[in-house]
Write a structure and sequence with these properties.
The chain is mainly β. It has one domain: Jelly Rolls (Sandwich). The chain has one helix and nine strands; from the N terminus they run H-E-E-E-E-E-E-E-E-E. The chain has a five-stranded antiparallel β-sheet with strand order 1-2-9-4-7. The chain is globular and about 35 Å long. It comes from Paramicrobacterium humi. This is Cupin domain protein.
Amino acid sequence: MQKTSLTALARHELEHALSGSSGRSAKTLYGGQEHQLRQTLVALRAGVVMAEHENPGEATVQVLHGRLELATADASWSGWVGDLIIVPDATHKVTAVEDCVFLLTVVKTQ
């Protein structure tokens, strides 16, 4: 069994995002090539956009800090601390409305 403090990791990754030139930082907490389930903690500085990308499988975004917007061509959803957004099976982008940290959970379909 393994235990991880999401609060401590969120703080750490946000520090990296705020000080780095890209304005983003991420750490995979569970998963990889040998697993179908992958959980990644992502931190973004306010204003940073994760460009449009495909959904690699079923996915959720749980906002741990700040505020973000997840958008497709047809709709958008605001996420605040404590919100869980089910990622649509469509090309989408994520914008940090404020400095934010979220837990991305993906079950790969292939």
